[in-house]
Amino acid sequence: MRQMLFAGAALLAATACATSDNESVTLTPHEPWAPPAEAPDGAIKAVPMRSASLDRTQTLTRVVFASCAQQNEDQSIWDVIAAENPDLTLYMGDNVYGDVRSNDPALPELKAAYMRLAQSEPFARLRASSPLLTVWDDHDYGLNDGGGEYEFKENAEALFEYVWDVKDERATRPGTYGSWILGDEEDRRVQVIMLDTRYFRSLLQPTDEPGARGKERYVPDSDPQKTMLGEAQWSWLGEELRKPADLRLVVSSVQVISEGHGWEAWKMLPTERERFYDLLDETGAGGVILLTGDRHAAALYKKDGVLSYPLVEATSSSLNLPLRAWLDPDEPYDQEPGPNRTTDMIIDANYGLLEIDWEAGVVDISIRGEDGGEIESTVVELGTLR
User: Fold this and answer.
1) Contact partners, residue 41, CB within 8 Å, separation at least 6
2) Is the pTM of this model over 0.85?
């Protein structure tokens, strides 16, 4: 969702990367990061952005998760992330901002955005030091709040697979969802599941009170014909959740258990969200931790009563275009309602870090600032995720 320059801080506090469809203002209030001098002048193209090789036998102990990076903004946070020495980095959507407002099927805006990111030296250093797994959200899909109705989604997927050098099963089917099981030591296997919440998703129900707290843009729609994942992805997910794993990191570009806002989230398709909870329960999938993005703010969440164990969600967003940039510094931040939220909303630049201590049987989940300092954290005992 594109950023909107709201007049009031209260509305700003709830925004989830949203703008009006006719928005023509500059995305960022900061001076844009300058690309290297040798960058092609005015080129509308993209290049593959390969990362360090993914070793599926490696036991993971440090995983970074992050979302929402504007390619024209400061890129230095990538060096901070690289300094974490992650075994794996999960880039969870809005990996660039390339909304195709020209309605050109060649996707010139999206290609240019990818090209600008490819010119980022800090991002190149991160990619060289850490394997990177990616899935998209609306701004690297090409359409603000876009779903299955997007007419250029096949073009966008082909471009996604090209720039992220996708050579696995994702390249053989519609959508960008994927799953990886990493680590071959007994009792130390991590499954990463990245869901595509764009390619198949049905249209959301517009709000009847635009801008109202908790109903800012959409309201829940229980229509059983509407889908978040599409039947093929649902079937695939059931098969993946039945595979043995000791920790499962399930990535959704939009929030799952958050209740306090009226922007895109699984709450807007409650029948589908219940289906998701039911599938986790029916498959006996233990060790699930949800990782989400999209909001240009971060927080930690926990929900009891939907599984036999507490469902934990960590939202990290944005890397370099946080909500703070649009707020009046003289006005206090008005926290959105927080059912299931266990921390305050973090409205400064951030990324997430999972530190897995297999010996102790715990996962430390932290949200970290642009200087690498810890802002919020929680410790989850793996034994309780069963």
Assistant:
1) none
2) yes
